[in-house]
From TrEMBL:
Aminopeptidase N is involved in the degradation of intracellular peptides generated by protein breakdown during normal growth as well as in response to nutrient starvation. CDD domains: M1_APN (cd09600). InterPro entries: Aminopeptidase_N-like_N (IPR045357), Aminopeptidase_N-like_N_sf (IPR042097), PepN_Ig-like_sf (IPR038438), Peptidase_M1 (IPR001930), Peptidase_M1_dom (IPR014782), Peptidase_M1_pepN (IPR012779), Peptidase_M1_pepN_C (IPR024601), Peptidase_M1_pepN_C_sf (IPR037144). Residues 236-446 form the Peptidase M1 membrane alanine aminopeptidase domain. This is Aminopeptidase N. The keyword Hydrolase applies. Residues 100-196 form the Aminopeptidase N-like N-terminal domain. Residues 454-559 form the Peptidase M1 alanyl aminopeptidase Ig-like fold domain. Its cofactor is Zn(2+).
Length: 888
């Protein structure tokens, strides 16, 4: 499909320009005639003037991109040439009456659609992706989420090649036609915006199951996959059923159609899509068995299945008024999937994993040139706003509301939100108002979390007065400037805290002047001013403050705690997040200090090393949590804490710390490894078994890092003997940065074994691209010539180019700039084909301010080189402009 751009160039859209649609569409009847080389789409719209608007225009505005218009008729009469005009991606139809029927016939070429938006082909099947603005690539339509209509869809195609014809809702009719063709008619009774439309036509196998809802309705569940993959759908089906049950139990939300379908496709720009009743998934998040998917893959798959299912209420039944409100559905649905995982597995471990992600990816975004509020004010290309800020920071904002209101009031708020807005397209503000009204709690100041970008910094210092027996917490919030927001208002930051005595016991927290009854041992301090002081009474000895417990707010915490106190908390804090975080704070301090000095001996204190030993030998610690405690901050998190960031020094410091830990505790790691090897069935997918394997992988990693000669052999043996992908990958990961014949042999054996299984081959590509060995960039360039490399397959692009540029900082930031140039070349090459995926790759180049002058210059040059390229997509244009500091 050729890209047709507005003659005036892509336009910036602003929230402040929002106007309601002049016309609403009540029903849509679509008829797809799917034929090789040309698909004809006939659309019949029943519409009427929007009673909610005073706009008296008689011009109906439709979106359309890359369409060939065959005919257009209004209320049964062909519209003459002068009755409409097409300008760029808009069609303006004049003289539209109060009520109307509009019939439009267009043709499209799904075979040539490499952007994978709208209707396209993947491995010989037709499928769609309409969010955010893909529907306009199918037919002319008011392609905006506040136009909600009831859809009836007829699909017609060759019966042999496309025996399965699917769309949203319920199947109404199907049958054979002449010339070996057949048809199916689907009807979705729930009004929906166009972005939730979906259609699929292909030769697919179907796995069926069913779910009885809480009101006793039987819902049919189907998972469609390529023939031969049926046996890989078990975890998807199981996750779906558990999600359906959980949403009933936790939120009282029941599924509303009689049928729920998931279709797996190999070519997909992201993870999955929540189309009403017909979710379309990247096959990576559908297909799994212990031989081909790791435990981490199982967990991700489960989380994504849950997320898409939960969208049925938070997203589909109540949707967004406009795309500035994207976090209304995404932040809330991420919060819901996080809660599902926490209730299903380990809450503490999930909280740590979410915090890790936020710090590694969202904090840098919020600190860089693409920083934007959870509810942005403007955009050039909406696809660029499916970000960790909208999703993960958005979920943190919901979580803070949950904490401020308490679980019961939050639930009442959810109920009120659905009562008020079911079937509507609304704003983040409407959600917050429902929460306020249901709880009686004023969220006025809290709303700044939606409008102010950037990560707040919380400076918390403790002072103890032994004479007055008081402990004073001085809290300061610093709100760093971000693009377009030089100065900010103080925010409401819930700071969950406790004070621990020398034994690690929490002390009663009696605030100055407070009544002495029922004193809690943990509190959430409402930090609402730039500077604030909280005084606690009756504190005899100097306590250690346990801060930001449960990661109560998405902020950067700075304290006056000593390294010794951090190690103390790492040993004793009873809050899993705070315990883990104290360790991370200690490690970040120690490793960045080593990196700054360029000294890589004795990076870690004996105190910390001892604490590691206690974790390994301590009996009462959940293995998955122990694995988190023992995992050092990633290189990107460390880079974020060092100015200017020195990727090589950070890599060296982190390696040195790993070596020290591995050497010091070789015996304990070996013991853990042996104990965890014998105790479990490698195919047991329970939370406990997965946690034990995570710890075993950590142990193997440290054994190899410690440099013991036997360890490499042990990892090689594990790779050779592995019967599951988890075992196989943990061995290969342990070997991945060691230049040895064992690594080469194991990688070759893995490649040869899995070369015909694309999802597993992607793992080989990623391992190859993320090795920190010096010749990795050369390897990556060779990978692009590999017969199985394909620029048209987003999973593969991410597995090679994305993995290298985002997951291999030391090689990507090579001092000669070769990594940057490589990425710039690939972005330009891919942009012609798939702008959305190309734009995703640009981010690392935009963070140049974090590095030294030489790197800054080279990174900027690469951005400028990309910008000079003629015909650049709006997607990449926007990110490059922001990267170069040009505001849109
Ligand atoms: N809503 C989709 C994402 C659509 C991305 C469009 N570029 C998946 C999800 O968040 O559940
Ligand atoms: Zn989502």
């Amino acid at each position: 499909m050729t890209r047709v751009e507005n003659a005036a160039g892509p336009q910036v859209k602003r929230l402040s320009d929002y106007t309601p649609p002049a016309f609403m569409i009540d029903t849509v009847a679509l008829d797809f005639d799917l034929r090789d080389g040309e698909t004809k789409v006939a659309s019949t719209l029943q519409g009427r003037r929007n009673p909610q608007t005073t706009d008296i225009t008689d011009v109906l505005e439709l979106d359309g991109q890359g369409l060939r218009l065959l005919s257009i008729s209004l209320n049964g009469a062909a519209v003459p040439e002068g009755g409409y005009r097409i300008e760029g991606d808009k069609l303006f139809l004049s003289a539209v009456p109060e009520n109307f029927t509009l019939e439009i016939v267009t043709t499209i070429e799904p075979e040539k659609n490499t952007a994978l938006e709208g209707l396209y082909m993947s491995d010989g099947m037709y499928c769609t992706q309409c969010e955010a603005e893909g529907f306009r690539r199918i037919t002319y339509f008011p392609d905006r989420p506040d136009v909600m209509a009831v859809y009836t869809t007829r699909l017609e195609a060759d019966a042999d090649r496309f025996p399965v014809l699917l769309s949203n809702g319920n199947l109404m009719q199907s049958g054979m036609l002449d010339e070996g063709r057949h048809f199916a008619v689907w009807h979705d009774p729930f009004p929906k915006p166009s972005y939730l439309f979906a259609a699929v036509a292909g030769d697919l196998a179907c796995v069926r199951d069913s779910f009885r809802t809480m009101s006793g309705r039987e819902v049919e569940l189907r998972v469609y996959v390529e023939h031969g993959n049926e046996h890989l759908t078990g975890h998807t089906m199981d996750s779906l059923k558990r999600s359906m049950k959980w949403d009933e139990e936790r939120f009282g939300l029941e599924y509303d159609l009689d049928l729920f379908m998931i279709v797996a496709v190999s070519h997909f720009n992201m993870g999955a899509m929540e189309n009403k009743g017909l979710n379309i998934f990247n096959s990576k998040f559908v297909l799994a068995d212990p031989q081909t998917a790791t435990d981490a893959d199982y967990e991700r798959l489960e989380g994504i299945v849950a997320h898409e299912y939960f969208h049925n209420w938070t997203g589909n039944r109540v949707t967004c008024r406009d795309w500035f409100q994207l976090s209304l559905k995404e932040g809330l649905t991420v919060f819901r999937d996080q809660e599902f995982t926490s209730d299903t597995h380990s809450r503490g471990v999930k909280r740590v994993a979410d915090a890790r992600l936020l710090r590694a990816v969202q904090f840098p975004e919020d600190a860089g040139p693409t920083a934007h509020p959870v509810r942005p004010e403007s955009y050039l290309e909406i696809n660029n706003f499916y970000t960790v800020t909208i999703y993960e920071k958005g979920a943190e904002v919901i979580r803070m509301i949950h904490e401020l209101l308490g679980a019961d009031a939050f639930r009442r708020g959810m109920d009120l939100y659905f009562e008020r807005h079911d079937g509507q397209a609304v704003r983040c503000e409407d959600f917050v108002a429902a929460m306020e009204d249901a709880s009686g709690i004023d969220l006025g100041q809290f709303r700044l979390w939606y409008s102010q970008s950037g990560t707040p910094e919380l400076e918390v210092d403790l002072a103890h007065d032994p004479d007055a027996k008081t402990a004073t917490l001085k809290v300061r919030q610093i709100l760093p400037p971000t693009p377009g927001q030089p100065a900010k208002e103080p925010m409401l930051i819930p700071l969950s805290m406790a004070l621990l005595d020398g034994e690690g016991q929490a002390l009663p927290l009696q605030l100055l002047g407070e009544n002495a009854e029922d004193i809690p041992k943990a509190r959430v301090l409402p930090v609402s001013q730039s500077e604030q002081v909280f005084v606690f009474e009756n504190v005899d000895d100097r306590p250690v403050p346990s801060l930001l417990r449960g990661f109560s707010a998405p902020v950067r915490l700075r304290t006056n705690r000593t390294a010794e106190q951090e190690c103390f908390l790492y040993r004793h804090d009873d809050d899993p997040f705070a315990r883990w975080d104290a360790g991370q704070a200690y490690l970040t301090g120690a490793l960045t200090a080593a990196a700054r000095k360029g000294r890589y001996d004795a990076v870690l204190d004996d105190d910390f090393l001892q604490a590691v030993g206690e974790i390994l030998s301590g009996p009462d610690i959940e293995p998955a949590f122990a694995a988190e405690l023992l995992t050092l901050p990633g290189e990107s998190v460390l880079a974020d804490a060092m100015t200017p960031a020195d990727p090589e020094a950070i890599h060296a410091a982190r390696n040195a710390a790993r070596r020290e830990i591995g050497l010091r505790h070789a015996g304990l790691f070996q013991e853990s490894y042996d104990r965890l090897s014998i105790a479990h069935d490698p195919e047991d997918m329970s939370t406990a078994a997965m946690g034990s394997r995570a710890l075993k992988a950590v142990a193997l990693g440290y054994l190899v890092a410690g440099g013991d000669t036997g360890a490499v052999a042990l990892a090689a043996l594990q790779a050779a003997a592995a019967t599951t992908m988890t075992e196989s990958m943990s061995a290969l990961q342990a070997l991945n940065n060691v230049d040895c014949p064992e690594r080469r042999d194991a990688m070759k054996a893995f490649h040869d074994r899995w070369q015909d299984t694309p999802l597993v081959l992607d793992k080989w590509f990623t391992l190859s691209a993320t090795s920190s060995l010096p010749d990795t960039l050369e390897t990556v360039k060779r990978l692009l010539e590999h017969p199985k490399f394909d620029l048209a397959t987003p999973n593969r692009v991410r597995a090679v180019i994305g993995a290298f540029s985002s997951g291999n900082p030391v090689r990507f930031h090579a001092p000669d700039g070769a990594g940057y140039n490589f990425l710039a070349d690939q972005v330009v090459r891919l942009d012609e084909m798939n702008p959305q995926v190309a734009a995703r790759l640009v981010a690392p180049l935009t963070r140049w301010k974090r590095y030294d002058e030489a790197r800054q210059r080279m990174m900027r040059q690469c951005l400028e080189r990309i910008r000079r390229y003629a015909g650049l997509s709006p997607d990449v244009t926007e990110l490059v402009a922001k990267g170069l500091g040009e505001e849109s």
